[in-house]
Amino acid sequence: MAEIEAFDLVVFGGTGDLARRKILPALFKRFCAGQMPSPSRLIGAARSKMSAAEYCDFVRAALREFCDAADGREVDQFLEHIDYVTLDAMGDQGWQKLADKIGTQTVRAFYFSVGPSLFKELAERLHKWELVGPDSRIVVEKPFGRDLETARALNRVLCSHFDESQIYRIDHYLGKETVQNLMAVRFGNMLFEPLWNAQYIDHIQITVAETVGVHGREAYYERAGAMRDMVQNHLMQLLCLIAMEPPAKFEPDAVRDEKLKVIRALDTVEPHHIVRGQYTQADNVPGYREDVGNPRSTTESFVALRCQLSNWRWAGTPFYLRTGKRLKSRDSQITVVFKDAPHSIFGPEAGRHNNELTIQLQPNEGITLDVTIKEPGQGGMRLMDVPLDMSFAEALGPDADAPDAYERLIMDVIRGNQTLFMRDDEVEAAWAWTDPIIKGWQARGDVPKPYDAFDFGPDMAAQLMRRDGREWRGIKA
């Protein structure tokens, strides 16, 4: 396990939902793994008026709820590294106290677990109170703007106070163990890389399906929709990793340069290659419009689209992206569908068969390769497809260390490794591709197609594939 230098991590919004659910449990697990050496500290900062002891009680409750950490010696030891300051992001209250609490550690990380409207204020006050040094880093969560114009404005604000090498735009999907393995499978196995192109691959599907609705995020989601919330960032990042050229080295800018080339190679998506949907009431569960309290809402909770890349590796190979709320099951996967053999020696009665590589992101992370074999029994050569299945939990055993995405990403911030974080030009290129799609919907007055909650999405999404003689994989019933 890589050694970690002692650090101070200040979490602005330290009493918020993200801190409670993800940041605090992630840091506790890394503490238990020996990656929070003394005198490292986590300092929560928020408007809530509470003492350090009261914040420790808050942290203890979060650990009990979200990582099953029963009260004990490890929790008590972790809490010794916790401090808190009541702070006003828009004014000067509490900033001197924060300056007094921060130690002499070279590595200082500031996690902006707040809305983007506060980024400028926080950045200015960090510099005003001389809290930023050469090895200081800031972590910012999405949304990175809501269009190209606001993304550029946000980047200008951040880059006016910090060097790009100090800015960590976090996308938790890139921290998932299976997403890491996607790069290992592609670039670490000679078996796949010669076949990873339009000559051998028929198409690629990326699905991120959720059973949850928008409860708790109504105001944000009504402004964003599935396109801004999921496609522009999470699915775009998965597309980049599956389609990118091999970087010269596994280094931050080398990897991000290749991802940027993928985004810039994306063709414009035609309107008939996009399906928007909105879940409706079913099984005593309210529909999207009931959830957000807007009976005329035209915000999409589901998007399916077909896109293509104009480059030598992928010319003519379609990529199908799909994501939605209130679908049949929670199922996120990437499926690489290889082409049929150019000629079947077994005749038409053997049926059509092809190889598929499936990278399961959640749940039950793992990789499956479908291969064609003879169906057991007599009576001729009948073919069937069987999976070569590698579940990470089974293959690596119960003692395998598979950290949560936030564990990995927070430690990468401390190490100063930006490989899994988005660069400013990457964010802006993604918006430059996304904006015309959204503006096209608005200009045409498109209304999302309804679909029943806990179903597979609008019928038109299936038709999108059938027009090409294909069908969706995943979203297991």
Automatic annotation (TrEMBL):
Q: What is this protein called?
A: Glucose-6-phosphate 1-dehydrogenase
Positions contributing to substrate binding: H172, K176, E210, D229, K325
Q: Which domain of life is it from?
A: Bacteria
Annotated active site residues, numbered on this chain, are H234
Which organism was this protein described from? Shimia gijangensis
- What keywords is this UniProt entry annotated with? Carbohydrate metabolism, Glucose metabolism, NADP, Oxidoreductase
What positions does the domain Glucose-6-phosphate dehydrogenase NAD-binding occupy? Answer: 10-181
- A Pfam cross-reference name: G6PD_C
Any Gene Ontology CC annotation: cytosol
- SUPFAM superfamilies in the record: Glyceraldehyde-3-phosphate dehydrogenase-like, C-terminal domain, NAD(P)-binding Rossmann-fold domains
Similarity comment text for this entry: Belongs to the glucose-6-phosphate dehydrogenase family.
Q: Output the GO biological process annotations, alphabetical, semicolon-separated.
A: glucose metabolic process; pentose-phosphate shunt, oxidative branch
The reaction(s) annotated as catalysed by this protein in its Swiss-Prot or TrEMBL entry are:
D-glucose 6-phosphate + NADP(+) = 6-phospho-D-glucono-1,5-lactone + NADPH + H(+)
Does the keyword NADP belong to this entry?
yes
